[in-house]
Amino acid sequence: MIARLSAGLLAAALLVTGCGGNEQKASTSTNKVGLITKTETNPFFVKMKEGAQQAAKTSGLELMTAAGKFDGDNASQLTAIENMVAAGVKGILITPNDTKAIVPAIKKARDAGVVVIALDTPTDPQDATDALFATDNLKAGELIGQYAKGAMAGKTAKIATLDLAPGITVGQLRHDGFLKGFGIANGDPSIACSQDTRGDQSKGQEAMENCLQKAPDINLVYTINEPAALGAYTALKAKGREKEVLIVSVDGGCTGVKAVKSGQIAATSQQYPLKMAEDGVKAVADFAKGGAKPKGYIDTGVTLITDKAVPGVESKDTTFGLANCWG
Amino acid sequence: MAVMEATLPRRIITTPTAGPLAALVLACVFFAVNSDQFLTGGNFSLIIQQVMVVGTLAIGQTLIILTAGIDLSNGAIMAFGGIVMTKLAVGSGLPPLLAVAAGLAVCAAFGLANGLLVTRISLPPFIVTLGMLNVVFALTHIYSGDQTVTDLPNALTFLGQTFRVGGTNVTYGSLLTILLFLLFAYLLGYTAWGRHVYALGNSQEVARLTGIRTQRLTIGVYTVAGLVYGIAALLLVSRTGVGDPQAGQTDNLDSITAVVLGGTSLFGGRGLVLGTLIGALIVGVFRNGLQLMGVPSIYQTLITGILVILAVAVDQLSRRRTR
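Structure tokens for the assembled complex are given below, as produced in the milestone run.
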């Protein structure tokens, strides 16, 4: 009786996934490509998946997807790589959760003849994958640095930097790029306060509150991403200073671009997860057709989004930003 | 005749692994029909590699659940053990085998600490191991400085190497996992210690009155479970080739899932460790099979959830029947 009950519910479970029919029998004739993201839920990766789906459709590939269960989950990504290699994929696109720990698994896949492309986040070392399709994060920082310099127009800057976390390359590059674009070096006296936020809105708010405690006259805030920027805005608003302070950020998520439109954030550098995945899938499709493997770093572009353009710094308005945003 | 008809279903009900085994076989048949790549030796070897870490953790979890306890800290203890082994072997110049021994000892010590808190201060296992989960998680990140440990010596990755059985590559780790399951099946099924564990889970009071030293037995179970988590740590390190401070964050619940899917009762005293192996394999087969069919991974989670509820429902129903 239990066996029958189990069988019945098992069949029901399989039907839920919509794969009860034989017509979906995995065929070996279509070439396959795998996409492994950090998590299933982050809008950035949802957009990435969308790009991969579109590109897979147009280039006649079958797309397999998988993700870690939480940010930092290496084991699930490793298992996904193995299963995709077993399924006979031509290529795997991955945003690694642990840039070092995933390297041996990637090596095995490449040894099995699979082309592996890192999206958004490079592996450590970067040449562990065939190619990297990502935003130039230094440039993303530089753009908002240049913008801030123009927008401050000779005012004496008192800067707060709301950073990511120690030892994470993406955060380091954006921070350094911002300073470079603004024309100062780390340790410059105009930097009144630097705090880590992990890119989280509530931590961003807390960091800004502490910075204002330390230096109440801060008038320029660099943030690692838009959630941190919105947290900073909330803290500034509580002090009644939101109108006098310039906030610049990186990401280009839809919530972030809307905040640029409403004036909460002055400018943001928009990145393109959809394009990363799209270009990655196309590269795998070319390889599957007998073309060359993609190689090295491929820049997927970054655009400065603002409605208050400053002379000498190229930018697009929020209409463009909203048409191309993610999330 | 009527008697015969009544006893056969009853016997199926009282064998708690019959349902899980049927589910596993059915799932294998389903995936074999729906994917060309499923039914190969290489793929089955892969599935065992993919379930060996959670499966081994689930051996310890089974022991504890059989005593009507629960362990939420096992994944965290494993992660810490892995970091201890790899950091000592790479950073301090300690001979790799000693580093492994140190890792095993640390894991056993955390198990012992759980056991002491559960018995000596009479705290509920859920609370003790919930606290321990956070303590060990924090210690892992403090001790490792959030750095992944790489360039491991051969002794730590040996279990990840393979040997050939009839044209299929099998890892030594898979073999060790199977042997561990057989060892604990023997210990639980054929020794006085095993009978005492079941007796303790059925009723601590009755067990005490029959002369079983329940406190010592409980402490022993948690310590042995800790040691098994240490072995899981070595399996994990050999599989990934690195010491990973982020490892194992969902493995506590995953190991409980394997135990429950294997037909072991969360109320204690009832279940088989080989059922846990089947439970772990069910999860692995679904993950692998659905991936081969191109079904997104979120559906694997959905199905695992449905199967867990089903398994507990079956346990409840059969308890009502046998009462």
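Chain A is about 45% helix and 20% strand. The longest helix of chain A spans residues 43-58. Further analysis is deferred to the final report.
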